[in-house]
Specification:
Length: 194
């Protein structure tokens, strides 16, 4: 009887661990670190959340995944993480659902921290360059390939959040601090943040 009870407790414990999900409160807890660019704390806390919710497929986990990658890039800029450590930490996320930060729309090429759509007969994508607060380092270039045509006019003057499946992760081959990562997202979506 003791063995059966022990086995049931063990199985129940495993089920509970696997069933954990990332909540809005979890995500909200990372925001102070991002605002102050405390990349190390943002990375450590987001790593804990991701490990605890390994099987979670929620949007909040996808946002925390982006926070983890973005803050790791910030750590590289601050020389708190090497490019090799960055690669070891983030390559595991290829193929997972990711949702990026919301950005205002722009029509200008080369704008920082803005989303620019490129929709024509031959392309259906958007692009962002996400930087630190001073704009001195590009932490992530982000390219989104949409499966459906996007109409930028549908978003008006709102902030837009893009996401999808993380298809490609590229580190700066020169290992300079000007830019750190290029992320490519396939089967992307765009929606008003809010």
């Amino acid at each position: 009887m003791k063995r059966i009870l022990t086995a049931l407790v063990f199985v129940f414990g495993l089920t509970m661990m696997q069933a954990q999900t990332v909540t809005y409160e979890d995500f909200k807890g990372l925001i102070p670190y991002l605002k102050t660019e405390d990349w190390k704390s943002a990375f450590q806390e987001s790593s804990k959340l991701l490990k605890a919710a390994d099987h979670d497929t929620s949007d909040f986990k996808a946002i925390v995944l982006y926070v983890n990658i973005f803050s790791a890039a910030g750590m590289v800029v601050n020389e708190q993480m090497t490019y090799k450590e960055l690669e070891n930490n983030i390559m595991q996320f290829k193929g997972q659902k990711i949702i990026m930060s919301a950005h205002p729309l722009t029509i200008k090429d080369g704008s920082l921290n803005c989303l620019k759509f490129s929709v024509s007969d031959t392309t259906n994508e958007a692009f962002t360059s996400s930087t630190n607060a001073k704009g001195t380092n590009i932490l992530c270039f982000e390219r989104f390939h949409f499966k459906d045509k996007q109409n930028p006019a549908n978003f008006g003057n709102s902030f837009v959040r893009c996401g999808g499946t993380l298809d490609k992760i590229e580190l700066n081959p020169n290992k300079s601090m000007i830019w750190i990562l290029r992320l490519t997202v396939k089967n992307a979506f765009a929606r008003k943040a809010g």
